[in-house]
């Protein structure tokens, strides 16, 4: 290889390295699906469940401790305590734009899986809902205490019912996370959580055919 070719190759490699360094770091996701003495079964970035011993590290995730009802993990340098079924996230470039794209189902609904306070839920985008509305079972899994909420009456398809207005610590959809989001807790179970305007008002929403893109504004 001649000097000119080597210089060209080196320049290309340097440009590629700079481009890769400029790319945002993707978030790491960890979920707890099982607990045993001194061990936890973790799902990391959607991979197959993996049994991890206390003190062991898998990628960016280290298992710190295991109790009878929860595991403490260190992810992205931060420790989080997770019960079975809960997820935690880290990483991502906080300076970059947070966006998520959703595809409409056969009925034209935009459905997606996300988390509330680390607990996995099934969302349906609903611009007619004033807040993030969830049923009693989802609220319990997300450790939402209605005693801290304000009792209200809401109109539903079955008439006016009792509900509670609360603040949700975190609501995550894809790479978008919002904190202190208004939520409404219904006294009965609901098939999905309605992703209402208390979340959507903080998004730029763009629809292109069957795709809805949400971009975090603040």
Describe the overall structure.
The protein is mainly beta. It folds into two domains: 28-90, Roll (SH3 type barrels); 99-216, Acid Proteases (Cathepsin D, subunit A, domain 1). 14% of the residues lie in helices and 50% in strands. The protein is built from three helices and 18 strands. It has helices at residues 3-22, 136-141, 197-200; strands at 28-36, 39-44, 50-53, 57-58, 61-66, 71-75, 78-82, 87-90, 99-103, 111-116, 119-125, 132-134, 150-156, 159-173, 176-186, 193-195, 203-208, 211-216. Strands 10, 11, 12, 13, 14, 15 and 16 form a seven-stranded mixed beta sheet that branches. The protein has a four-stranded antiparallel beta sheet with strand order 3-2-1-8, with no helix packed on it. A four-stranded antiparallel beta sheet has the order 4-5-6-7, with no helix packed on it. Strand 4 (57-58) and strand 5 form a beta hairpin. The termini are far apart. Mean pLDDT is 82; it is low at 8-26.
Task: Summarize the SSE layout with pairings.
Blueprint: H1 3-22, E1 28-36, E2 39-44, E3 50-53, E4 57-58, E5 61-66, E6 71-75, E7 78-82, E8 87-90, E9 99-103, E10 111-116, E11 119-125, E12 132-134, H2 136-141, E13 150-156, E14 159-173, E15 176-186, E16 193-195, H3 197-200, E17 203-208, E18 211-216
Parallel strand pairs: 11-16, 12-15
Antiparallel strand pairs: 1-2, 1-8, 2-3, 4-5, 5-6, 6-7, 9-18, 10-11, 10-14, 13-14, 14-15, 17-18
CATH superfamily of the largest domain: Acid Proteases
SS class: mainly beta
Q: Please state the second-level CATH architecture of the largest domain.
A: Beta Barrel
- Poorly predicted tracts of residues: 8-26
Radius of gyration: 21 Å
Beta-strand share of residues: over 45%
Amount of helix: 10-25%
N-to-C order of helices and strands? HEEEEEEEEEEEEHEEEEHEE
CATH topology of the largest domain: Cathepsin D, subunit A, domain 1
Shape type: globular
pLDDT averaged over residues = 82
- Name the quaternary structure: single chain
